[in-house]
Amino acid sequence: MSCSKLVDSSLAPFVDFHVHSTFSPDAEDTVEAMCEAAVQAGLNAICFTDHVDFEPRDASHGYLRFDAYRKALEEAAAKWQGVLEVRMGIEADYQVWYTNELREFLSGRNLDFVLGSVHWVESLSATGEVFDRYGLEESCRRYLQNVLGLARSGLYDSLAHLDFIKRYAFERYGKAPLEAFADEIEAILKALIDNGTALEINTSGLRRPVHETLPGVETLRLYRRLGGELVTFGSDAHRVQHAGFAIPYAVDLARSIGFRYVTVFRGRKPVFISLE
């Protein structure tokens, strides 16, 4: 860790940088309720990452009322000051033909954090439609090609749930054959490192039948072996009972793999919190 990188020694590493509120169409609880739940869960910092999506078929398309979102988060940050650090981010879906729309959306907006995800493959939902069209193996291949495009884009601060597709493949097929795509996954990780983009340890899979983090432990170990240092933690909570879900597990996992810091973002600048 070079001396030019900012380390915040005032925070413990129990942070959740992937949380949704009713500013997302698939979430159930308000900003205020999620903040209260975060405090109850023992978190030190939370970042709201409500959905921004440019795919017209997605429920999130055009849903976010950004000015109201900003106001709600500013009020929450003031209310919880000294108890819970509240940050404003978005989770923005990636499809290559919408990169100009994303650049335009980001222009002039003072966000703390831009989390990138792939939920669509060629305008087919990665939660189901893509399997109907291509089957398991080809769906995984095309999904990872999209993730590689995201990693190479340089538009995001962190990559969310790298192997998201396995969560939904499991419901149909059982374990997804991602080990067959080792070259594609390594290319994604190298692109993240080259661009200074973080990799999220997403705990949502631990509360689903797939029962592992996204990405899994072996991918996290590979990222570390390749020289990756930047990891963010995210519960992907869409309701209060999941705020901070398994974040202590993520802390222990990251530490066991050899990561020294968890990364948080303020004004889209990385800040490091020690795991030691």
Describe the overall structure.
The chain is 36% helix and 20% strand. By secondary structure, it is an alpha/beta fold. The protein is globular and about 50 Å long.
Q: What share of the residues does DSSP label as strand, in percent?
A: 15-25%
SS summary, helix count = 8
Largest sheet: 7 strands, parallel
Structural class computed from helices and strand pairing: alpha/beta
- Give the H and E element order: EEHEHEHEEEHEHHEHEHEE
Query: Rg from C-alpha positions?
Result: 17 Å
Overall geometry: globular
Looking at this protein, list some descriptive labels.
276 residues; alpha/beta; 7-stranded parallel beta sheet
Please specify the SSE layout and strand pairing.
Layout: E1 6-7, E2 15-19, H1 31-40, E3 45-52, H2 66-79, E4 85-93, H3 99-106, E5 113-117, E6 120-121, E7 124-125, H4 129-153, E8 158-159, H5 165-173, H6 182-195, E9 198-202, H7 217-225, E10 231-234, H8 247-257, E11 261-266, E12 269-274
Parallel strand pairs: 1-12, 2-3, 3-4, 4-5, 5-8, 8-9, 9-10
Antiparallel strand pairs: 6-7, 11-12
